[in-house]
Structure formats: C-alpha cells, structure tokens
Amino acid sequence: MKRTDKKVQRRVLMSAVAVLLILAGAFLIFYGFRLKWKENKVQKDLKNLYYAQLSYGDEEPPPGHENGQNGGVNPGRPKPPLPLPEEPILPGDEEDPELQFDFSKLKPIALLSIPKIKLEVVVVEGTKSSDLLYAVGHFTGTALPGEKGNVAIAGHRTFVSGQFFKRLDELGPGDTIEMEYNGNHYVYRITETWVVLPDETWVIGETKESVITLVTCTPPRSTSHRLIIRGVLDENP
Questions:
Q1: C-beta of residue 191 within 8 angstroms of C-beta of residue 213
Q2: Which residues contact 217 (CB under 8 A, 6 or more apart)?
Q3: Please, which residues have CB within 8 angstroms of residue 185's CB and are 6 or more apart in sequence?
Q4: How far apart are alpha carbons 69 and 213 in whole angstroms?
Q5: Residues 101-126 pLDDT 10s
Q6: CA distances from 196 to 41, 69, 200, 218, 219 (A)
Q7: Cα separations (Å) of 40 from 106, 164, 185?
Q8: How distant is the alpha carbon of residue 14 from its chain centre?
C-alpha cells in the first residue's frame, strides 16, 4: 500500500512539473511575440515620425552638430583617448529592470538599412538603454550621415533587448550600409571588422574620412566584447 501511494505521489509530482514546464514555455512564447509586436509597432511609429519631421521641415541637428560638420583627427591604431561616449564604456546588452519606456523621449534622426542581412531600422539620437530598447542609437557628438567624420551607431543583438544587430557578424569587406538622412541617401562600403573591449571608446572617435562605425555586443548573449563594423562613404554609389 505504501509503495502504491509513493507511485501515485510520484506521478502527481511529475504531472505537476510537466504542466509547469508547459505553462512556462507558453509564457515565453507569448512574451516573445508580445515583444516583437511592440518592437514592430514602435519602429512603425518612429518611421512615421521621421517622415513627418521631414515634411514639416524639422531638421534641427542633434547636440554637437550646430555647425553642420564634424571634422577631427583620424584615431587609426594606436588609439588616442577620446571621451565621446555618453558612458565610460560602449553600451552593451545588459537589461535594466527599472527601465521606464517613454516613446515621447525618442528622437528619430535617420534610417539605416543593410541589404545583405535584410535589415531596416530607425536610428534615434542617443545610446541610453531606453533609446536602444526598440531602435538603434546614434552616439551624440559623432558625425551625421554624409558628413566628414565618424557616424557611430550602437544596437543590441539579444532577444529581450532587441535583435536589430543580431546578424552583424555576417558582414564583411565590400558589403554596404545605407543611410537615409534629411531626405538624402548615403551608401557606406564596409572596409574592416574587428572586436574590442567595452572600454575601447576610441572606435567612435573622430576621423578625417567620412566613415560609419556600427557597435554591438559579441559573442551573442554576452557583454564581454564589442563587435565593430567600419565602412567608408561611397562617393559614387
């Protein structure tokens, strides 16, 4: 009798565990779909706002671009200290449990597309956690598309924080990065890719050439390093 009771208890326990696992899986699937739906909605609203700004002539440049140009010294390699980031390290994929998302604080400034990985995403000004939750962010103080200097952009590649730069490691020399800014279209051709530590902020420093620098975490689901994609403006796209 006691053995039978133990078998019944074991079956009940296994059934309860199975039900919990099914519920947990269903919740993760629902949560994932909800995040993707939210991401798509925010991107759609940001794109509409971007085009509305163009229509109404709202072309005020972000902070640090009052004169319309952003020249400087090419960092090359060795790397000079350049205190350009809003934070002492390049932004990563860490989650902020206290993050309060506020769409009204986002400022869309451009559209970024990468044909090879079928990416099209709105670029907002800033690289705070709230900026990168549903978009990619422009490092304030770096060049703007088409200018002389370094257009530096950060994005996430995790499921929870956004996956816009998930496939960035598939890019290589010769691939193109396209930017639409103030109604103009710019094409950057990738020249090199490399990996740096989070505190190597020299990668977003000023350059003499018109270049673009994309920054994301690597390897996926890790914040130990940053993948850097560098491209040069194609004068004859």
A1: no
A2: 92, 93, 156, 157, 158, 223, 225, 226, 227
A3: 178, 179, 237
A4: 17
A5: 889 999 999 999 999 999 999 999 99
A6: 33, 27, 6, 9, 11
A7: 15, 11, 23
A8: 42
CA distance 150 to 232: 9
Cβ neighbourhood burial of 22 (10 Å; 0-12, 13-18, 19+): exposed
| The two three-digit tokens of residue 147, written as one number | 């200018």
Tens-place pLDDT, residues 151-192:
999 999 875 556 899 999 999 999 999 999 999 999 999 999
**The 3-state secondary structure of the chain, one letter per residue:** CHHHHHHHHHHHHHHHHHHHHHHHHHHHHHHHHHHHHHHHHHHHHHHHHHHHHHHCCCCCCCCCCCCCCCCCCCCCCCCCCCCCCCCCCCCCCCCCCCCCCCHHHCCEEEEEEEHHHCEEEEEEECCCHHHHCCCEEECCCCCCCCCCEEEEEECCCECCCECCCCCHHHCCCCCEEEEEECCEEEEEEEEEEEEECCCCHHHHCCCCCEEEEEEEEECCCCCCEEEEEEEEECCCC
* Contact between residue 93 and residue 86 where contact means Cβ atoms under 8 Å apart: no
Sign (positive or negative) of CA dihedral 209, 146, 93, 118:
negative
Determine the distance from the C-alpha atom of residue 7 to the mean position of all C-alpha atoms in its chain, rounded to a whole number.
53
